[in-house]
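User: Quick sanity check before I run a bigger batch. Here is a single chain. Can you write out its predicted 3D structure?
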Amino acid sequence: MKKVLLAMSGGVDSSVAAYILLNQGYDVTGATFTLWKLNNRSNEDDISDAKEVCKKLCIPHMVFDFSKKFKEAVVENFVSQYKNGFTPSPCIVCNREIKFGIFYEQSMKLGFDLLATGHYARIIEENQDYHLKTAASKDKDQSYFLYSITHNKLKNILFPLGNLSKDQVRKMAANIGLDTASKPDSQEVCFINGKYTDFLKEYTGYNPTPGNFIDKSGNIIGNHTGIWNYTVGQRKGLGVSFGKPMFVKNIDANNNTIQLVDYDDTFCKGLIAKNICWQIKKPSNNIKAEVKIRSKSLLSFATITPKDDAAKVIFEKPHNFIAPGQSVVFYDGDTVIGGGIIKSTIN
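Assistant: Done. Predicted structure follows.
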């Protein structure tokens, strides 16, 4: 019987994942992380919920204190990215550094055969190799957030919910009497309550420096209240009236300027991505693939040119509202073939 260490957040997804794994004949142990101890916040309630689920399912429960690593790798990165004009994706960083980083390493050291999570994605073995696939339920697919898992780890990872919808998971939880059946989904940034800007001010202890709005020619057209108060694609809440819709296209932390443009000027023909993680053998030449520039964006075709640990991505049709700091993920049908962090756009 193979031993599985399951990451349990205290929510319905990981609770049902534990039940499924038990019914598949695995020897399951639940594990919850202490992730943050900052600004009078912690995830102690989630730990308690996970412990109760494990008790009901009669499986062991472990707690790992990853708060120091989480603060350094996820929270500090989040703050630094916003201070430098980027739009970070903390879930992707957490998956890379925590769940499939330090937690994966710990699970292997402790003698577990497999690691499991409640993500909606699939890992399929084909031709003696393992491939990261989209979830059967496209509405809940989380493969975008998982592209940075090192390929050689896939053989030791299970996603028990990959073939289920969220409704099916909640119904299963209710049928077996789990208290987490009706628990609301967690928000995307788990360590923040309310506005991210309020968190940044509280965490850093200061307000960002006001600066200038500029047009596409570099002319000053108004004043902003600090770069972390704005995101690429933003139209409302600029604090200045221009008599027509204007959108944030670029945020320049070095010059403390924010470029505003008309809608027609928001489009870009491509982007440069860094820190590329390939789920296939790194291509030696250009490849054509479908890409996502946001978790909820539609797939669209692009030509990808690899170079060292970076890549140039040229879209078949121009895209807009591309935010440096977010990730671009490459797909071949339902298979994730790679991805990286957006460094800059190509106009």
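The chain has a mean pLDDT of 94.

User: Great, the batch can go ahead then.
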